[in-house]
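Researcher: Structure for this, please.
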Amino acid sequence: MGFELVAECMTKETGGDGIRHDSWSEWEKVTAPENHVINNNPQKLHYEWLSAYGSENYHEEIFEDWVDVVPGLQFPRTFKFRVYARGPKGHFSGRGWSKLKISGEFAKYK
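Model: Predicted structure, token format:
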């Protein structure tokens, strides 16, 4: 059993004045079903940039709602992330955007 989330954002156009704009997406969030946690092992999370353009493109992620699976070993129940884009350099160079898909697995612990 797993999850798949997609976040995307788009900036305003870089106009004739050359000023670049930036944008953040909304937070995309998933919470594991009852008696499950999110497997936050980096090898179990898959990142796929579906589209990106501009001078900067990246993401932020947060794991929350940690539970003890066994004494001393914690895993999160909630995962959220968002993407960022900054418009391209140059006059009249258009918009910037980011679109990222993250997928992962739940693990049953009870």
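Researcher: Any notable elements?
Model: The radius of gyration is 17 Å. The chain has a mean pLDDT of 95.
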